[in-house]
Amino acid sequence: MRVTRPMLAVAGAAAALALTGCGSGDGVAAKVPPTATGSLESLAAEVKCEPDMQTDADTIRQAICTNSTGKFVLATFATDRGQREWIDDAKDYGGSYLVGRKWVAVGDSGVVTTLRATLGGDVETGKDHSAHSAHSAHSAHGAHSG
Description:
By secondary structure, the protein is an alpha+beta fold. It is about 35% helix and about 25% strand. The protein has 5 helices and 6 strands. The chain has helices spanning about 5-20, 40-45, 80-90, 110-120, 135-140; strands at about 50-55, 60-65, 70-75, 95-100, 105, 120-125. A 6-stranded antiparallel beta sheet has the order 1-2-3-5-4-6, with helices on both faces. A hairpin with a 2-residue loop joins β2 and β3. About 35% of the residues are buried.
């Protein structure tokens, strides 16, 4: 599977969302259940969110979710390889990633830590872009590349 620009755009938006939040999940990580499995809808039901589908393709299904914990992106993948390629590319945008078998949840670290208490999985962290805040000024002036 090749990662497309629209997929990266959504991952980038999710990572930007993750970078704007600040949370602490102290104490939650101590109790991690077995990693959840299932469809995007069943994972969303586990964490009590109504998924707003963004991508519904054979290789990836991706939705924006909001629950009492906060806002995050939930994605499921057809293959392990497709999932790993997506995560590796998305990590360039920063953010926190809760990774299960053929699924990932992306949000700020507090949201990801809280989701982990329900879904299990492993936490991975993207690149830190805090030193690059000047880039947002370019966006405000209409600079666009694509």
